Amino acid sequence: MEARDFRALLGLIVDATSSALVVLDPDYRVVRADRAAEVVHGPGLAGRLYHGALAACATRCDGCPAASTFADGTAKTCPRPHTGPRAGEVLVVESHPLDLPGGRRHVLLVGRIRSSVGTERRAWRISDRYGELSSGAE
């Protein structure tokens, strides 16, 4: 498989997940966001400071998992849940280090809908509600 084909396939896989995936640079700006992130947080995330784009906050919140991951390079989970601004779902937010070639660290934020039953089905229904993602799976 050629590199271009592999990147296209990887993009399809990322967009098929129900988790909101967002990559942050060291300045806390959104570098990339998948389709689920744009469904949950709204379009046009790239280039914006993450706390304003994702949490609608003026500043970083206490216990920010991204700050901890940038500092020590370990995965973290936010100690408090967040609410998606568009669909109102409660999200658990995790951060994971992405160490890129050249030694520049980025962070992958993963937002998952917190629910005890039917999380994946609910995520797809939320996505379908906004007409941006669809799945025939139930």
Give keywords.
single chain; 138 residues; alpha+beta; Beta-Lactamase; six-stranded antiparallel β-sheet; 5 helices; 33% helix; 23% strand; disordered C terminus
Explain the overall architecture.
This protein is of the alpha+beta class. The protein is built from five helices and six strands.
Question: What's the SSE blueprint?
Answer:
Elements: H1 3-16, E1 20-24, E2 30-33, H2 35-41, H3 50-54, H4 65-72, E3 76-77, E4 82-83, E5 90-99, E6 105-113, H5 119-129
Antiparallel strand pairs: 1-2, 1-6, 3-5, 4-5, 5-6
Quickly describe the structure.
It is built from five helices and six strands. It has helices at 3-16, 35-41, 50-54, 65-72, 119-129; strands spanning 20-24, 30-33, 76-77, 82-83, 90-99, 105-113.
- What would you call the structural class? alpha+beta
Instruction: Characterize the biggest β-sheet.
Output: 6 strands, antiparallel
General form:
globular
The low-confidence parts are 116-138
The topology string of helices and strands comes to HEEHHHEEEEH
Number of domains: 1
State which percent range the strand residues make up: 15-25%
Please give the CATH class.
Alpha Beta
